[in-house]
Give the backbone structure.
Amino acid sequence: MLVYPSSIDLSSRTLRYLSTQLRARRREIGMRWRGLPADRQALLALAHLRCGDTYTQLAAGFRIGVSTVYRSIHEVIDVLAALAPTLAEAMKTIRTKAFVILDGTLLPIDRIAADTPYYSGKNKRHGMNVQVLTDPFGRLLWASPALPGSVHDLTAARTHGIIGARATAELKCWADKAYQGAGHSVRVPFRGRRLKRWQRRHNSTHAKIRCLGEQSMATLKGWRLLRKLRCSTTRITAIVQAVLVLHHASA
């Protein structure tokens, strides 16, 4: 097997942050020995999350066994996921914003046609539904746990408590047509073909604001592992939370 060096488009600050968290974890559990030092384990996990490198590729590149790669990456994801903010914690930051942008995205997964709960009729593919909150400048604030792709965006937002938390905070929110019926303070575009001129102007202004939320989607998809997940669906929430923590650490 040929082995080649590769770069990771992340700052060294991200590596230092993750290495520090891993060292703290080792001291906490009293583990003195690992197959990899903390900084190498952090680099291994970043290569997997950011570049999407497979376990086999990483095993060859780091000259360790595939099982060691598997255990190391799972440990890193669990450590980071435990640091992810809950919606209640995120709302403390969100309340300081003029408004937020709510949107949903589908993370593609490797599933067969029989797995209907994960099939999104809107996107015509299998995946997991993740709800994202973005600030007025397009910065990613919070990402929800993952639900099967067949779940509608509005249902997912209500399931996670986003609609209720936003209403309690009396926070204005911009969203797309999928969130019709979420409440009067959730700004959605007008639907229909025969719209009045002022309604068309409203939709145009609304689209300019909401398109900033697409930056947060690009932020998530910048972690290439999320572009095609081949792991168990029970692990996807932890992966999303790990990516969120690393994104905030590198911002």
Q: What stands out?
A: The chain has ten helices and seven strands. The chain has two domains: 12-81, 87-232. The two ends are 36 Å apart (CA to CA).
